[in-house]
Write a structure and sequence with these properties.
about 300 residues, mainly alpha
Length: about 300
C-alpha cells in the first residue's frame, strides 16, 4: 500500500539515515564555501597555483597520516587513470581558484558547477550512453543560464575570470569521468583522494618555488592557507560520507547549496551583487545540473575536485 503524503513526510524527517545524509552534504557545502572565502582572501597574497599547492599538501599530509595509521596499501594497478584524474583535477582547481579571485564568489562557484552538464555531454558523445527524453532540452537550458550569467551580469574586465570559471567546470567533467572509471575498477575513495591531493601539491610546487621557497608568510597568511587546505579536506570527507550513506541524486541536489552559501558570503563580506539576469542564470544552471544528474541515472558526481 502506498503511504499517505503526511506519513511519507513524517518518515522523511524521522528517518535517521536520510537526516544524516542531509547533514553531511550541507556541512560539506558550507565547508566548500568557507574554502572559497579563504581562497578569495588569500588571492591578494598568493598566486592561485600556490593556493592549490597548499590545498594539496595539507590534504596529502592528513590523508597520508590516515594511510600510515591504518597501514593501507598505496600500490595500484591503475596508475594511468589516477594520473589523468589528478592532472585534470589540478588544472580545474587552478582555474577555479583564479576565477574566485577575479569575479563574484557566487558566479565563480556556479560556473564551476556547470561540470554535470559537460559530464553529461561526455557520457553521450564519448561513451555513447543512451539519451533520455528531455536530455538536450536540459543542456540547452543550462547553457542559456551560462549566457545570462556572463552577459550582461559580468563587466568586460571580469570576463577572464569567467573564462577560468567555465573552464574549471569543463575540465572538472574530465576529472569526474576518471573518478567514475576508478570507482568501476574498484579503487577505494581514500586512494583516489590521496593521489589527487599529491598530484595537486606536485603541480603547484613550481609556482611555490618561483615565489621563493623561504618566502615569509605572516600569521594571516598561514591561517588562510590552513583554511584552504583544512576546509577542503573536511568538505571532501563530509561529501564522501553523504554519497556513501545516501542516494546520489539527493546528495547532488544538496551539493548545490554551496552556491547558496557562497552567495551569502559574497554579499556579507564583499557586498557582491548580481543583476536579475545573473541570478536567473544561476537558477537555470543549478536546475539544469540537477536534471542532468537525474537523467544520467548514474552516480557521476561522487567526488568533486574543490
Amino acid at each position: 500500500m502506498t503511504p499517505s503524503a503526511p506519513a511519507a513526510g513524517r518518515r522523511l524527517f524521522t528517518d535517521p539515515k536520510s537526516s544524516m545524509q542531509s547533514l553531511w552534504m550541507i556541512a560539506a557545502s558550507l565547508l566548500f564555501a568557507c574554502m572559497g572565502v579563504c581562497v578569495k582572501l588569500g588571492a591578494a597574497q598568493f598566486a592561485a597555483a600556490e593556493l592549490v599547492f597548499w590545498r594539496g599538501f595539507i590534504a596529502t599530509l592528513l590523508i597520508g597520516s590516515y594511510v600510515l595509521l591504518r597501514r593501507l596499501p598505496l600500490a595500484t594497478p591503475h596508475a594511468r587513470t589516477h594520473v589523468m584524474r589528478g592532472l585534470s583535477g589540478f588544472v580545474s582547481l587552478v582555474m577555479y581558484f583564479y576565477a574566485i579571485s577575479m569575479i563574484p564568489l557566487a558566479a565563480a562557484v556556479t560556473l564551476n558547477y556547470t561540470s554535470p552538464l559537460f559530464l553529461a555531454l561526455l557520457l553521450v558523445l564519448w561513451l555513447r550512453e543512451p539519451v533520455r527524453r528531455g536530455f538536450y532540452a536540459v543542456l540547452a537550458a543550462g547553457f542559456i543560464g551560462v549566457i545570462l550569467l556572463l552577459q550582461p551580469a559580468l563587466a568586460r574586465e571580469q570576463w577572464p575570470g569567467a573564462v577560468f570559471g567555465l573552464g574549471s567546470g569543463i575540465i572538472s567533467s574530465i576529472a569526474y569521468l576518471n573518478v567514475r572509471r576508478l570507482g568501476e575498477l574498484g579503487e577505494p575513495e581514500w586512494r583516489t583522494v590521496f593521489y589527487f591531493s599529491a598530484l595537486s601539491a606536485l603541480g603547484g610546487l613550481p609556482w611555490l618555488l618561483a615565489a621563493g621557497p623561504f618566502h615569509a608568510i605572516d600569521l594571516r597568511g598561514w591561517l588562510l592557507l590552513l583554511g584552504v587546505g583544512g576546509f577542503g579536506v573536511l568538505a571532501q570527507l563530509c561529501m564522501t560520507a553523504a554519497y556513501k550513506r545516501g542516494k546520489t541524486l539527493a546528495s547532488a541536489s544538496l551539493a548545490y547549496s554551496t552556491v547558496v552559501f557562497s552567495s551569502a558570503f559574497g554579499i556579507l563580506l564583499w557586498d557582491e551583487t548580481l543583476p536579475w539576469s545573473g541570478w536567473a542564470g544561476v537558477i537555470l544552471i543549478v536546475a539544469s545540473g540537477l536534471f542532468a544528474t537525474a537523467l544520467s541515472g548514474r552516480a557521476n558526481t561522487e567526488a568533486v575536485t574543490d
